[in-house]
Amino acid sequence: DAGVIQSPRHEVTEMGQEVTLRCKPISGHNSLFWYRQTMMRGLELLIYFNNNVPIDDSGMPEDRFSAKMPNASFSTLKIQPSEPRDSAVYFCASGTGTGGQGRNTQYFGPGTRLTVL
Amino acid sequence: DQQVKQNSPSLSVQEGRISILNCDYTNSMFDYFLWYKKYPAEGPTFLISISSIKDKNEDGRFTVFLNKSAKHLSLHIVPSQPGDSAVYFCAASGTASKLTFGTGTRLQVTL
């Protein structure tokens, strides 16, 4: 079975440019999560969706960041305009949990390493 | 405010010995806890979990212990192997689907 698929794996862009990261969750999973990993802050949750609906976007750093999930098999995270401080590894994860005991295991994609010059 | 803390950024253990990774949490609403392992240039991989109704869960060489009164959990790896060298993240969740992660502990297993 294919795991979580992310593209691109690496992205190098210049400050001010728009960046779009893509994620295909595991088929049958109803939750999707976007994380950012940096040396300083570790793994931060940016936003998550249940059944394609955004549930909690309190981790989105500012209005330059937006995320969509138009259907159960695809999500995007967009940064516009990008800044050097956005450089990080961005992970997408999916899961079957909607809360409750034993149902919140998340499965991660390989990540997108973003470098903003 | 860090709700899940891994106070040891790194740990070095000899091959064959026990590795003990620690994690503390502050939110009493957390009722499900997980450990993830991460190799460089890969996403975190789920390793083992425990719910708050248990105090121990074992899977092969990996055992997670939960002390609810102390709000503390630990991951024991016995015996440690060089392939266990990775960054280990502790995570916790409550009634919502989201996980709160610690900052990770880098484990180095030496020969």
Q: How much of the residues of chain B is beta strand, in percent?
A: over 45%
* pLDDT < 50 runs, ≥5 residues of chain B: none
Largest interface: A-B, 28 and 27 residues
Report the major sheet of chain A. 7 strands, mixed
Mean pLDDT of chain B: 94
Number of strands of chain A: 11
Average pLDDT reading of chain A: 91
Q: How far do the termini of chain B sit from each other?
A: 38 Å
H-E order of chain B: EEEEEEEEEEE
N-to-C SSE series of chain A? EEEEEEEEEEE
End-to-end C-alpha gap of chain A: 36 Å
What structural class do the secondary elements of chain B suggest?
A: mainly beta
Largest sheet of chain B: 6 strands, mixed
What would your notes on this structure say?
The complex is a heterodimer of chains A (117) and B (111). Chain A is mostly beta strands and 117 residues long. Chain A has strands spanning 5-7, 10-13, 19-24, 31-38, 42-50, 53-56, 65-71, 74-79, 88-95, 106-108, 112-116. In chain A, the strands form 2 sheets. In chain A, strands 2, 4, 5, 6, 9, 10 and 11 form a 7-stranded mixed β-sheet that branches. In chain B, a hairpin with a 6-residue loop joins strand 4 (32-38) and strand 5 (45-51). The N and C termini of chain B lie far apart (38 Å). In chain B, the strands form 2 sheets. In chain B, strands 2, 4, 5, 9, 10 and 11 form a 6-stranded mixed β-sheet that branches. The A-B interface holds A 4, 31, 33, 41-43, 45, 48, 50, 55-56, 91, 93, 95, 97-102, 104-111 and B 31-32, 34, 36, 41-46, 49, 51-53, 89, 93-104.
